[in-house]
Design a protein that fits this description.
Distance between the termini: 15 Å
Number of strands: 32
Structural class: mainly beta
Largest sheet: 4 strands, antiparallel
Oligomer: single chain
Length: about 325
């Protein structure tokens, strides 16, 4: 289901993938539907606690109760910002809007697929809790990144910049001064002394030598964008060039499995992993949508949705 907005009232509803309205516009804001069938909805703009949750029919399941709310995680838990009486602290609720555990925090992120959530204490330090609300990684870090598929997260604190595992053990301290987070293929970018970028493996070893002017993480399809001289192309996890550097600007393969590129005509299109143009460069903007198989586009001032094959679904305004 995709959000649409009424041109008359400014309220939001949903259309299906055929472009038909299935939930009439009636909300002041909406989020995507999670695996449990619920979505965040802004229900009352006049209240400091105006956010709740709706189901796929538009029925209000949890009325306006929160200052802000995030999408439900894989575990069916949503991070919410509580009301003024609770000092706008961050807590976690279930599908009925009830707290999953009593503890709340100065700041928190949603639970990841592995069942960990980063939280920040009043002292400004970060740790991780599990779905019971138990602190399983001590709050001793200045920052904690996302846990990658290889089970490592980038952390920083005084005297340490490296990675910890899901048990909180300091697992890797790379020799490089600059490095990124691990990606979907278990590799992380690093910047070498020659001011070029390469890729390291989970043990900190160099997997692809530092020879690129810029480099980004690998997508799930095993391709990463790299800049060679002034143009962008794509390499595989062995460092072999798979798509020649022919783009002035291009995304990774994170848009419905496609990469978005800027054409010389100033418009945006999309290619697949074989470098075939599957969406012609006729759009003023292309972005991801609530549905992983659908793209949000703008053309001649009209905002709408298309499939990854380029077929029109419907307008965002109704």
């Amino acid at each position: 289901m995709l959000p649409v907005r009424s041109a008359e009232s400014g309220l939001f509803g949903f259309i299906d993938l055929a472009g038909e309205i299935v939930v009439p516009p009636q909300f002041h804001g909406v989020g995507p539907f999670a695996a449990n069938g619920l979505a965040v909805a802004h229900l009352d703009p006049n209240s400091e606690s105006g956010y709740g949750f709706i189901d796929r029919t538009g029925r209000i399941v949890v009325g306006p109760s929160f200052h802000q709310a995030e999408d439900f995680s894989k575990q069916g838990i949503a991070m919410v910002i509580l009301d003024r009486a609770q000092f706008f602290r961050h807590g976690f609720v279930d599908a009925a809007g009830n707290k999953v555990f009593p503890a709340d925090f100065e700041h928190a992120r949603s639970f990841d697929d592995g069942g960990l959530a980063v939280v920040r204490t009043e002292e400004g330090t970060c740790g991780c809790i599990d779905v019971r609300g138990e602190l399983v990684i001590p709050a001793i870090y200045d920052g904690i990144g996302a846990f990658a598929a290889n089970g490592l997260a980038k952390v920083r604190r005084a005297g340490y910049r490296g990675f910890v595992d899901v048990a909180g053990k300091q697992a890797l301290r790379p020799a490089f001064k600059e490095f990124g987070e691990f990606d979907a293929c278990g590799l992380a970018t690093f910047k070498a002394g020659n001011h070029r970028y390469g890729y390291m493996g989970s043990g900190g070893e160099t997997r692809i030598p530092a020879r690129y002017a810029e480099a980004a993480g690998f997508a799930a399809n095993g391709l990463a964008k790299v800049r060679i001289a002034k143009r962008w192309g794509f390499i595989d996890t062995a460092g072999a060039l798979r798509i020649a550097p022919g783009f002035d600007d291009v995304s990774g393969f994170t848009y419905a499995g496609l990469a978005i590129f800027l054409h010389t005509n100033g418009k945006w299109g999309a290619i697949n992993a074989s470098s075939d143009t599957v969406i012609e460069p006729v759009y003023d903007d292309i972005d991801a949508s609530f549905d992983p198989t659908v793209l949000e586009v703008v053309r001649d001032g009209v905002r709408g949705y298309i499939t990854r094959a380029g077929a029109w679904i419907g307008n965002q305004l109704c």
